[in-house]
Specification:
The complex is a heterodimer of chains A (97) and B (400). Chain A is of the alpha+beta class and 97 residues long. Chain A is built from two helices and four strands. By secondary structure, chain B is an alpha/beta fold. The chains are: A alpha+beta (97), B alpha/beta (400).
Chain lengths: 97, 400
């Protein structure tokens, strides 16, 4: 169901509006909802992982360098990571496009 | 061999459910549905019915458990009434959208307030637009028969919707009537073995009941509406097959002396039998009166209804629920709306009768027919009118 591929004819919907392909939530890019994006200044970051713990979308990952980053395909721009960050590493910046 | 026995209608209903060999019965007791559920729990306890009886903590849970069980592929039965149905409402709305077949008997009872345990149709009319197949029984035999028919209807792959089998609380549920009870072998010649069209399965994972974004929601509703409309054909097929198998024939709309009648009494449920007695009486006076009874309420059988009332001058349409401050009771508003565009249509005079257990007598039907004709002569068309109300005697005397 949750794909962003235009409209589906009612005749083509699965019976009972079921999702028949497991795990397809990944195809729904909630990042399109975003009006602000988290921008990091890793000079201030001591890699505590509070942003990772608090992200309600689960879209924050840890890179090989040990720093955290948000997957912008899914980040809704809620700003919780910026609010919770202990070291003011994260700033929410208006999306320009 | 089928046996005709004197039996309480609720017990006959439970017997039909036993014959259907249901897998799960989640239920919460409420007057006047109680005897159905009580008997089923006993059948399960005594090993007469191999089912899981789930004594849930509320009707909201009863319907939730029913949908869960149906999603797991079980044949499910539950029953409720009035406040119980109202408490279920949230989950009732969900069932048709999930396309899960559940058979639910509703022993119709007034909704509070004032508190009433007695019969009218206010409980079911509040669930009118939930997308369930809805059928109304006239007598105990019909309750037994239609409960069986219900399982075949909802599990048909062209339907896969829940159904409410409505029977008037007390007037039917607690009556002892002569009912022909089928034995298992006979029931099995009609009932199809249960097979879930789809179900939750760890090897083929699916999600049921996901969010419907605006891009999909209207199409999902369209699909549910088309499924409900399409169920009429299956209901008709199943009633026909039941008639061919057991000799008891049912239609989606029934008539009694309606051919050439000038006045049609329109009813649903058990008061239809009293209406027929009233019609016989009025016929001896030379009044051209007939009965049309709607058995299938959802999907509404528009063509059959229009054909049944063709040629009548006026319909005395009886509602068993008040649409407070509205344009007509729930039945009359449907009826007026499907006649509105037709040339030479009969007038529809709407009477609200039999609320909260008040009897609708032969004399009441005579009064309603007289008043319908009186209003027609005078060219007065009130939206709806409660009848047999203390304090309104003067008005009622006008048409006598």
């Amino acid at each position: 169901m949750p794909k962003e591929t235009g409209k589906t004819r009612w005749q083509d919907l699965p019976i009972g509006f079921m999702i028949t392909d497991a795990g397809n939530a990944a195809e729904y890019h909630t990042g399109t909802w975003r009006s602000q994006q988290p921008v990091r200044n890793n000079d201030r970051c001591f890699r505590c992982g509070m942003c990772y713990l608090f992200c309600p979308e689960g879209c924050i990952h840890r890179g090989p360098d040990g720093y955290f980053f948000a997957d912008l395909r899914y980040c809704k721009g809620c700003g919780i990571c910026a609010q919770e960050c202990w070291s003011d590493t994260i700033n929410m910046v208006e999306e320009t496009e | 061999m089928a046996k005709r026995v004197g039996i309480e209608v609720s017990i006959a209903c439970a017997e039909a459910v036993r014959l259907a060999n249901v897998d799960v019965v989640p239920a919460y007791p409420i007057t006047p549905q109680t005897h159905i559920i009580e008997d089923l729990s006993q059948l399960v306890a005594e090993g007469e019915l191999d089912a899981a009886f789930i004594p849930v903590e509320s009707e909201h849970s009863a319907m939730s458990a029913a949908l869960g069980a149906a999603a797991a592929g079980a044949r499910v039965f539950t029953a409720t009434s009035s406040q119980g149905l109202a408490l279920m409402h949230e989950i009732v709305m969900l069932a048709p959208s999930l396309r899960l077949p559940v058979v639910m008997v509703v022993a119709n009872r007034a909704l509070s307030g004032p508190i009433s345990i007695w019969n009218d149709h206010s409980d079911i009319m509040a669930e009118r637009d939930c997308g369930w197949v809805q059928i109304f029984c006239e007598n105990g035999q019909e309750v037994f028969d239609l409960t069986l028919v219900a399982f075949n209807v909802v599990e048909d792959e062209r339907v896969l919707l829940p159904i409410m089998v409505n029977l008037d609380g007390f007037q039917l549920s607690h009556m002892i009537e002569p009912i022909e009870i089928l034995d298992q072998e006979e029931a099995d010649t009609y009932l199809r073995p249960h097979k879930a069209a789809f179900r939750l399965d760890v090897d083929n994972p699916t999600s049921m009941g996901p969010v419907g974004l605006p891009e999909y929601f209207s199409e999902a509703k369209m699909a549910a509406d088309m499924a409900l409309k399409g169920s009429k054909e299956v209901v008709e097929e199943e009633l026909k097959r039941f008639g061919e198998t057991f000799g008891r024939h049912y239609n989606v709309v029934e008539t009694y002396k309606a051919e050439g009648a000038e006045v049609i009494i329109l009813t649903m449920g058990s008061i239809s039998e009293t209406a027929m007695s009233a019609i016989d009486k009025m016929r001896t006076w030379g009044k051209k009166v007939g009965l049309v009874r709607i058995r299938l309420w959802r999907p509404f059988p528009i063509e059959e209804f229009v054909a049944a009332v063709k040629g009548a001058e006026v319909i005395a349409c009886i509602d068993r629920a008040v649409t407070f401050g509205g344009t007509a009771g729930p039945v009359a508003s449907e009826v007026r709306s499907c006649l509105y565009h037709l040339p030479g249509k009969p007038a529809v005079i709407n009477f609200v009768a039999g609320l909260g257990g008040r009897d609708v007598t032969v004399d009441d039907f005579v009064t309603m027919v007289d008043r319908a004709q009186h209003y027609l002569r005078k060219g007065i068309f009130p939206p709806y009118e409660l009848i047999n109300i203390a304090g309104e005697e003067e008005k009622e005397a006008e048409s006598a």
